[in-house]
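Can't paste images in this forum, so I'm doing it all in text. The chain is below; anyone willing to post the predicted structure tokens underneath?
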Amino acid sequence: MTIRYASALLAGLAVAAVSPSVASAQAGGTIAQGIAIANPSAVVAASSAYQTAQTQRPTTYKPQIDQANARKTQIEAQLKPLIDKLQADSKAANPNRAALQQQYDQIQQIEQAGQAEIQKILEPLNLSQQYVLEQIGDKLDAATQAAMDKKKISLVLDSQSVIKAGQAYNLNQDILAELNKLIPSAQLVPPAGWMPRAQREQQQAAQAQAAPATGTKAPEGR
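Text version of the structure:
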């Protein structure tokens, strides 16, 4: 019943690159010309910009990581006697169920509040992760198109949706090479006030709805 410390940050980017044209296939079971598969998430994770950011982040955000670890230790120290008491009381011959429930609820409240506090401390790391991914993602389509043009590919399928395909169809390395050219490194620290694209779009939509309508409505006739 120790606090669950979520230090792993989300990362993942699924962008399917699909051309509208359909490639023709050669007869005799040979490779279908113009068709390839790729795993965008794996390409992004293998990119130089992403790997460099992953290496730099623990140093750049060391104060936040140290603060989160220290707070985690404090919360666990606060919880230990409560957990020990709960375990001891539960082993009594006739345990007081209501009292045990109150103790359990208190532990849960402290644990949940602690998790929220630690996540708040680590929020700059989460924003950094999303900022780096967005920068790389913005170049992914161009890198995919460049790889397609060089290999004369007209259709790229997400490999996660393909049951089975030979290695000859895999375009990952070609896209990765182009991606590393377009964005060899990414900015690690987002600008002040930066928000991920999804939040920016939500904010813009909310502002558009809240904006007063331009022009005046003509009075209705009787």
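Helices lie at 40-46, 48-60, 62-90, 97-121, 123-151, 172-182, 197-210. DSSP finds seven helices and two strands in the chain.
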